[in-house]
C-alpha cells in the first residue's frame, strides 16, 4: 500500500491533506463505543456561531419525538444481574459486548456515549450493589492512568506514580511503580519522606550511608524489601535482568519528581564551592552531566557485591538497622482461602512506621471484613481481580473494583473486605502507617461479644452465632462461582468452597 502510493506519486498529496475528521464509528476498537448522539460534522460549513433566532421562545420548535429512544433493545444481561440488588453479586461484564447499568429492578440501559472498557473493569461502579449508599471519596487509582516518566538514554526505564493529585483522600501514602533496564540506575538521591519498597521483578544492588557514616550495600531480588529513612542518601542499580519495583512513601503529597538528585546538587552550586568542598581543581567538574539523570543506563555492576563495599571507620550499618529485608525467603502463613505474610517493625526494626501484609486470596475467597485501628491503608494489587466495599460511618459505603496495577486506599477505621472476583489468585499489599500490623476482625468481634447482645441487635440465627470463630482467620473461603447464589439465594452458595 505504502509502496504503491509512492510509485503513483500520491504520497505528498496524502501527507498534505488535513487529518480526516474521526467519527464515532471509526473510534471503535475491541471496546467499541456507540453511535454518536449528535451527528458529527465532516465538511466545512458556514460560520462558527448560529443566529440569535435560535434562542428559546423565538426559535422554531425542535422535534421532541420520533428520535431514537434511549432504551437499548435486545441487550443481554450477565449472570446475577437480575438478582436482588442487595445480594450485590459480582457482575462479570466481560461476558457481554455492551454491559448495561441494571441491577435487579433498578437502573436503565445506557445508550452512550461511553467506552465499554471502563465499565467492564468497574462493574460495581456502573451497576452498584443496592447496599452502596451515600458519598464515599474515590478510593481506587489504576496506575495505567498515570503519566509515565521515561528515563534518559536508550530504554533506560520509567516511573509512574500516584499521590494526592490522583487520589485526594490518600494523604498518608504515595506510590511509585518504577522499572530500570539491566544495569540502569535510579540516580544517587535522597528525599523528604520515608521510602518502603518491594521488588516486583528482577534484582537490584542498593548502596547507602547513614548520618553516622555507617555504610550499607546489598543485593535483593523479587519479593524482597528495602526501607530508606527520609534524608538517607542512596543509589539503586538494576542487576543483569533489570528490575521493576514499587516504592511507597509515607506522605500522600510526595512526588517522585521532587527528590534531591546528586546531579542537580552539583549543577546548582558554584563550581568554586564544589572545588573547595571536594578539595579538587575546578577542572574536575568539566564533565558533570548537563542535566539531571534520574533514570539512566550504567555499566554492569561486578557480580560479587563485596567488590563494591566501601567502609569507613564507623564500619557497616548494624544488622538491627539494616535497610533491607529478604522477604521473599519468609514462608507465608497459610489458611483456608489463601495465605498472608506480615512485615513490620517486629522483624524489620528500622521501618518503624510501615506495617505491611502481602495477602494471597484464592478464587471465590476473600480477605475478611475488618478495619484498622488508627492508620489509613494503602493497597497495591499485584495480580488478579478483586472488589472492595468501604463502609464509612455513619451510613456511606461504596464498592470499587481492582485489577493488577491498581492502587486502593481506605481511611482509618473504615470497614472493608477484599473479595476475589476472578479465576486466578488475587495478590495484594496492605500497607499501614504503624509499628505493628493490626486489625479488628468483624467475625471475631461478634464471636467474643455476649451472644445475647449480638442476637438482640442483629437477630442472627443460633447456628450462625455458634459457628463464629473466636480466632482471627484473615481470610474466608467461598464459592468460585460468584453468581451461584442467584439461583439459590437461601443456599450456601456464597461460602461453599465449590
Ligand atoms: C566475594 O568477594 C569476597 C571478598 O573478596 C570473597 O571473600 C567472597 O568469597 C566472594 N564471594 C563469591 C561468591 O565469590
Ligand atoms: C563490607 O566490609 C565490612 C568491613 O570489612 C564487612 O564487615 C562487611 O561484611 C562487608 N560487606 C559485604 C557485603 O561484603
Ligand atoms: C455459575 O452458576 C450459575 C448458576 O448456577 C451458572 O448459570 C453459571 O454457568 C455458573 N458459572 C460457571 C462459570 O460455572
Automatic annotation (TrEMBL):
InterPro entries: Bicupin_oxalate_deCO2ase/Oxase, Cupin_1, GPI/OXD, RmlC-like_jellyroll, RmlC_Cupin_sf. GO terms for biological process: oxalate metabolic process. Residues 148-286, 325-466 form the Cupin type-1 domain. Keywords: Manganese, Metal-binding, Signal. Its cofactor is Mn(2+). The keyword Signal applies. Binds 2 manganese ions per subunit. Transmembrane segments: none annotated. Mn(2+) 1 binds at residues 189, 191, 195, 234. The keyword Metal-binding applies. GO terms for molecular function: metal ion binding. The active site is at residue 430. Mn(2+) 2 binds at residues 370, 372, 377, 416. Residues 1-16 form the signal peptide. It comes from the Eukaryota. This is Oxalate decarboxylase OxdD. It comes from Lachnellula cervina.
Amino acid at each position: 500500500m505504502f509502496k504503491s502510493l509512492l510509485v503513483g506519486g500520491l504520497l505528498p498529496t496524502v501527507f498534505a491533506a488535513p487529518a480526516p475528521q474521526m467519527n464515532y464509528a471509526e473510534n471503535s476498537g475491541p471496546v467499541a463505543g456507540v453511535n454518536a448522539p449528535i451527528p458529527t460534522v465532516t465538511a466545512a460549513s458556514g460560520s462558527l456561531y448560529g443566529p440569535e433566532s435560535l434562542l428559546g421562545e423565538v426559535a422554531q420548535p425542535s422535534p421532541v419525538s420520533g428520535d431514537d429512544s434511549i432504551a437499548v433493545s435486545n441487550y443481554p444481561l450477565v449472570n446475577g444481574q437480575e438478582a436482588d440488588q442487595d445480594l450485590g453479586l459480582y457482575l462479570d461484564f466481560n461476558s457481554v459486548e455492551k454491559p448495561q447499568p441494571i441491577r435487579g429492578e433498578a437502573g436503565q440501559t445506557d445508550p452512550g456515549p461511553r467506552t465499554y472498557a471502563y465499565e467492564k473493569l468497574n462493574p460495581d461502579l456502573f451497576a452498584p450493589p443496592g447496599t452502596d449508599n451515600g458519598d464515599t471519596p474515590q478510593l481506587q487509582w489504576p496506575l495505567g492512568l498515570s503519566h509515565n516518566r521515561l528515563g534518559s538514554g536508550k530504554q533506560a526505564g520509567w516511573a509512574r506514580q500516584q499521590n494526592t493529585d490522583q487520589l485526594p483522600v490518600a494523604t498518608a501514602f504515595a506510590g511509585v511503580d518504577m522499572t530500570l533496564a539491566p544495569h540502569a540506575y535510579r540516580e544517587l538521591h535522597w528525599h523528604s519522606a520515608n521510602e518502603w519498597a518491594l521488588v516486583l521483578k528482577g534484582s537490584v544492588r542498593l548502596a547507602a550511608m547513614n548520618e553516622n557514616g555507617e555504610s550499607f550495600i546489598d543485593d535483593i531480588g523479587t519479593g524482597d524489601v528495602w526501607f530508606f529513612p527520609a534524608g538517607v542518601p542512596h543509589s539503586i542499580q538494576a542487576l543483569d535482568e533489570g528490575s521493576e519495583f514499587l516504592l511507597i512513601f509515607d506522605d500522600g503529597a510526595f512526588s517522585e519528581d521532587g527528590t534531591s538528585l546528586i546531579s542537580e546538587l552539583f549543577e546548582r552550586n558554584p563550581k568554586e564551592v564544589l572545588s573547595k568542598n571536594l578539595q579538587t581543581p575546578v577542572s574536575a567538574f568539566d564533565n558533570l552531566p548537563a542535566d539531571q539523570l534520574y533514570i539512566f543506563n550504567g555499566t554492569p555492576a561486578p557480580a560479587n557485591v563485596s567488590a563494591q563495599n566501601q567502609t569507613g571507620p564507623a564500619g557497616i550499618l548494624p544488622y538491627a538497622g539494616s535497610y533491607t529485608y529478604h522477604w521473599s525467603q519468609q514462608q507465608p502463613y497459610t489458611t483456608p482461602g489463601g495465605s498472608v505474610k506480615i512485615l513490620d517493625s517486629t522483624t524489620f526494626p528500622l521501618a518503624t512506621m510501615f506495617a505491611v501484609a502481602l495477602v494471597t486470596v484464592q478464587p471465590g475467597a476473600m480477605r475478611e471484613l475488618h478495619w484498622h485501628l488508627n492508620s489509613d491503608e494503602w493497597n497495591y494489587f499485584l495480580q488478579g481481580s478483586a472488589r472492595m466495599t468501604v463502609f464509612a460511618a455513619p451510613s456511606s459505603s461504596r464498592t470499587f473494583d481492582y485489577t493488577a496495577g491498581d492502587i486502593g486506599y481506605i481511611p482509618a477505621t473504615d470497614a472493608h473486605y477484599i473479595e476475589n472476583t476472578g479465576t486466578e489468585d488475587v495478590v495484594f499489599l496492605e500497607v499501614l502507617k504503624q509499628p505493628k500490623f493490626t486489625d479488628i476482625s468483624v467475625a471475631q468481634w461478634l464471636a467474643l461479644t455476649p451472644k445475647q447482645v449480638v442476637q438482640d441487635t442483629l437477630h442472627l440465627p443460633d447456628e450462625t452465632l455458634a459457628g463464629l470463630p473466636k480466632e482471627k482467620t484473615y481470610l474466608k473461603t467461598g464459592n468460585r462461582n460468584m453468581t451461584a447464589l442467584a439461583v439459590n439465594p437461601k443456599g450456601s452458595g456464597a461460602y461453599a468452597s465449590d
